[in-house]
Write a structure and sequence with these properties.
The protein has about 110 residues and is mainly alpha-helical. The chain has a domain of about 70 residues. The protein is about 30% helix and about 5% strand. It has five helices and two strands; from the N terminus they run αββαααα. A two-stranded antiparallel sheet has the order 1-2. Helix 2 packs antiparallel against helix 5. The termini are far apart.
C-alpha cells in the first residue's frame, strides 16, 4: 500500500489543491479587510436612487444606519471622507480599527 504523501511521489503535487489567495476585500468605511461576512451597502440609499454598492463590515453598516437618515446619506453619496469628518463616525472607526475582521457587537437603535 502506497503512502498518501510520499516524499518520492512525482505526482504528489497534482493531488494537493492550494487555495488561491483571493485578494482581500477592504471595507469602504473603516478601511480594514473584511472577514467571512461581507455586506454590500448602498452609500446612496436605493429609495433615493442609489445603485452603486460598496463592501462593508456588518457592524460598520449598522453604525451608519443608526446614525444617519437616508437624506443625510444621500447628501454624502460616495464621499467617505465626508462621513469620516463626523465626530461620531471618526470615534467609531478609531475604536473598531484594532478589532478582528469578523468582530460584531450590538449597536444602539436610532435615537430620533
Amino acid at each position: 500500500m502506497a503512502r498518501r504523501n510520499s516524499r518520492n511521489d512525482p505526482y504528489g503535487d497534482m493531488h494537493r489543491q492550494e487555495e488561491a489567495s483571493a485578494p482581500a476585500v477592504i471595507c469602504w468605511l473603516c478601511g480594514r479587510p473584511t472577514g467571512t461576512t461581507t455586506i454590500l451597502h448602498h452609500p446612496v440609499p436605493k429609495s433615493r436612487g442609489g445603485r452603486d454598492t460598496v463592501p462593508m463590515h456588518a457592524i460598520c453598516q449598522q453604525m451608519l444606519i443608526a446614525n444617519f437618515t437616508n437624506s443625510e446619506l444621500q447628501r454624502h453619496g460616495m464621499n467617505v471622507e465626508g462621513l469620516l469628518a463626523d465626530p461620531g463616525v471618526r470615534k467609531f472607526v478609531d475604536w473598531v480599527a484594532n478589532k478582528d475582521p469578523d468582530f460584531t457587537a450590538t449597536m444602539t437603535k436610532k435615537q430620533r
